[in-house]
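Deliverable D2.4 — example input (structure tokens):
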């Protein structure tokens, strides 16, 4: 995943920014292709609840205020921070020192939100709605594929770029990078499906940030006793276990390593330690917003949007709608922090 993200430069943050600023929709349309392939791959497995003998479940979460608020924060934060959940990891692996700052703030914000989760879960919401369970998986699959097709056509007509180039694969390009965005879209859809087979659930990123933040806080003297989110069940067990027993944490490490390898193969690993103060401030603010937002929204652009929509969960659709509003505001705030709105 890290290698694919780096070699295809598959980012959500810049894709939405180019759509808003320049009406360049090519990368967003590639995301729709990725979602369509993933939905088609997920549907048979989720309909049966089993694939290759492994029990699997989709990324389903409640639909409500906390998802909308969290996704809005995340959309705003990723434009200031300079990357989304997956984008932060692969750019860190690629040698970006600024994104290390964003990642640190991301972890801090995610842990911070965990301390408030008892309040957020009391806000208005409807329990998870999966179209596959509600309408039947065949109907849900056809419906979502039709929606992707319609959205892609609307973007094609509205956008300034109407075609996405598909270049002939070469072994050299496969190794050194510069992949067409469509290569990344297809590969990530398949890899998310593989993730579901291996882990039993689709690709997720930001839970690992919450867990890392809590482990660091505990090491520094924080006492989780009586904290709602960290009392009982999966979260308490994870907090008291090695981070290497957590699938999401191990996958995140793998993404960073994959991107590190990819940047080395491409000859582009060149960390820079010069970060303007305004840009540094944006990285910290953006990271905090992304971390807090992702925790209360049950995930980021990967866990909530990509995996959620591919699982036919309505919270994934709400997530992207709210995130795009936050993104629009974030794009307009970027120049105040000395950040360009170019590609």
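Example output (designed residues):
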């Amino acid at each position: 995943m890290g290698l694919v993200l780096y070699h295809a430069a598959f980012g959500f943050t810049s894709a939405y920014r180019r759509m808003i600023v320049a009406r360049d929709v090519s990368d967003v349309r590639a995301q729709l292709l990725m979602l369509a392939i993933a939905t088609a791959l997920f549907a048979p497995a989720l309909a049966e609840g089993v694939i290759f003998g492994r029990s699997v479940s989709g990324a389903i979460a409640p639909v409500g205020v906390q998802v909308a608020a969290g996704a809005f924060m995340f959309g705003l934060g990723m434009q200031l921070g300079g990357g989304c959940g997956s984008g932060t990891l692969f750019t860190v692996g690629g040698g970006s020192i600024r994104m290390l700052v964003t990642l640190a703030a991301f972890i801090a914000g995610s842990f911070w939100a965990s301390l408030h989760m008892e309040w957020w879960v009391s806000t208005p919401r409807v329990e998870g709605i999966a179209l596959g369970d509600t309408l039947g998986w065949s109907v849900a699959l056809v419906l979502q594929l039709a929606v992707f097709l319609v959205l892609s056509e609307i973007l094609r007509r509205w956008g300034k770029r109407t075609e996405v180039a598909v270049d002939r694969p070469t072994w050299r390009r496969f190794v050194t990078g510069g992949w067409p965005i469509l290569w990344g879209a297809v590969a990530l859809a398949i890899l998310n499906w593989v993730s579901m087979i291996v882990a039993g659930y689709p690709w997720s990123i930001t839970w690992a940030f919450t867990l890392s933040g809590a482990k660091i806080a505990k090491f520094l003297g924080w006492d989780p006793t009586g904290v709602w989110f960290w009392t009982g069940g999966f979260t308490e067990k994870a907090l008291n276990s090695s981070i290497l027993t957590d699938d999401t944490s191990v996958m995140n490490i793998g993404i960073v390593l994959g991107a590190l390898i990819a940047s080395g193969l491409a000859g582009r690993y060149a960390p820079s330690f010069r970060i303007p103060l305004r840009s540094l401030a944006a990285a910290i603010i953006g990271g905090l917003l992304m971390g807090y937002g992702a925790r209360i929204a049950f995930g980021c652009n990967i866990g909530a949007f990509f995996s959620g929509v591919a699982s036919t969960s309505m919270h994934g659709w709400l997530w992207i709608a709210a995130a795009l509003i936050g993104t629009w505001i974030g794009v307009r705030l970027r120049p105040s922090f000395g950040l360009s709105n170019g590609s």
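Residues 2-337 form one domain.
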